[in-house]
Amino acid sequence: MDFETIQFSVSGGIARLTLNRPEKLNSFNVQMHGEIARALDALEADATARVLVLTGAGRAFCAGQDLDDRAVKPGDAAVDLGASLENYYNPLVRRLTGLKMPVICAVNGVAAGAGANLALACDIVIASTAAKFIQAFCKLGLVPDSGGTWILPRLVGSARAMALSMLGTPVSAEQAEAWGMIWKAVAPEALAGEIDALAGHFATQPTKGLSFIRQAIRAAATNSLDAQLDLERDLQRAAGNSADYKEGVAAFLAKRPPTFTGA
Question: What average pLDDT values come out for the chain (263 residues) when binned by 10 residues?
C-alpha cells in the first residue's frame, strides 16, 4: 500500500501510523486524511494487529490543519470549516476511539490545534520533553475541535481547559504529565524505547479485554452510575466468554505465563 503523507506498517502485532509531512510539521491536508482512512481500513481488516502506535515524523507530532489547504483568497467564498470537521476530523476521532485495540500516541514534538486533540484522544500518551501541547484555535478566531472541548475539560478540569483554549498557552510535556493530560513525559532519546516496550507489551495481552476497558472508561464520562454498572455487566459477560479469559484462568491455575491470542 503506497502512501505519500503517512507511513503505515503492521509487524509482530504492532501497527504503526506515522504522520509524514515533516516539512509542514505534519499538518493535515485532504490527502493525508484520505491516506489515514485507507490505513485504518487496512488495520481493521488485519487480524494480526493488537495495538496501534500513532506518531509524527521529524521534529513535530502534528501542527493541526495545513492552512495553505484552507486558505481563503480575496474574492473567494468562505471555506466551510464545519464541512471539514464533518467529513475529515470527526470521522478520524471516532475511528481512533472506536478501534478494538489500544491506541498509543508518541508525541515527539509540538502538538497544536487538531494535532493536540488527536493526541489526547488516544488511550495512552507518552510525550518527549521537547513536545508542547497548544490549543491554537483562539489565535485564528476559531473553536477547539477534533473533540478538544470534550476531552480537555475531562483531563484537566474546566478552569484549565477554558484558560488554555482562550489564551492558547503552550503546555510543556512535563506540565501535561503533572496535570494528568498525558500518561508520561520522557527525555527525547528515551521516547522510542518507551513506546516500543509499551507496544510490545500490548501485542501480547488480551486485546478483546483491553478494548472493553477502553470502551467502559470512555462511556463513564457521560453515563450515570446505573448505566455504567449495566455496561460493566454486559462487557464482563462478553469478556468472560473470550478465549483469552479461559487462557488466563488456565495459566493462573497451572502457575505458568499466559499466551493470549487477542480472541
Answer: 94 98 97 98 97 98 90 67 96 97 98 98 98 97 97 97 98 98 98 98 97 97 97 98 97 97 93
Domain boundaries defined on the chain:
6-202, 207-254
At residue 75, the pLDDT reads: 60
Sheet holding 171-172, edge to edge: 60-62, 110-112, 132-134, 171-172
**Domain 6-202 homologous superfamily, CATH:** 2-enoyl-CoA Hydratase; Chain A, domain 1 (3.90.226.10)
pTM: 0.94
Give, in order, the Cα–Cα distances in Å from 85 to each of 67, 82, 93, 94, 147.
Answer: 14, 5, 10, 12, 10
> Which residue from 198, 58, 56, 185 is spatially nearest to 127, judged by alpha carbons?
185
**Fold (CATH) for 207-254:** Lyase 2-enoyl-coa Hydratase; Chain  A, domain 2 (1.10.12)
